[in-house]
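Thread: quick sanity check before group meeting

JM: Hey all, I'm pulling together slides for Thursday and realized we never actually wrote out the predicted structure for the chain we discussed last week. Dropping the sequence here so it's in one place. If anyone has concerns about the input, flag it before I start.
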Amino acid sequence: MAAYGFSNIRRVFFYGGTYFPKDANYGIPSYKSVLTEISKYYRENREAIFAQSLDFYNRIFEESGKFSIFNINIKRINDAIKKDNSINVDYVKKLLNEGALEFKLHFDGDNGGIDESPKFFHFSALELLSWDYIINKNRDSLSKGVFTLKKIASGGVFDHVGGGFHRYSTDKKWIIPHFEKLTEVNANA
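JM (edit): ok, ran it. Output follows.
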């Protein structure tokens, strides 16, 4: 899992790495040089970056056989975004509605989140619920998202002493944390 990820203007990942030191050494470029090169490449090759992003997601799709049920297929979203960056709002509303309905099928009404154990955060699902409320005014999505966040924040998966969130909960009630904190989890939280 990349510790550093770079995305295009549409928030689609196109490049990442696990570690970039302050100064280049052992064949690893410095963080500053990576930022400089990415900035230059982005300015000069936006279309190539967009193509690289699609290729990246297509490879993930091929490898996994499917996306997470809560991630919206990037091809469908890009279909909704036209060349002039206007958006087919009706299509985006439909995609959000479909995702929210899928979430509701797996919702844990007692503990929030997805009905599973161990219990993971599923940030993409929570973001989808937020957008469904903002775009479609779906109050049920808002209430399920807020309920889930309250359960997470009051449970043991949140480190009430040191701050931050543990990677996941080993039980359905968000009580018993997997004692590992990841930058990725806390950056999303």
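AS: nice. DSSP finds seven helices and two strands in the chain. The first strand starts at residue 4 and ends at 7.
JM: adding both to the slides.
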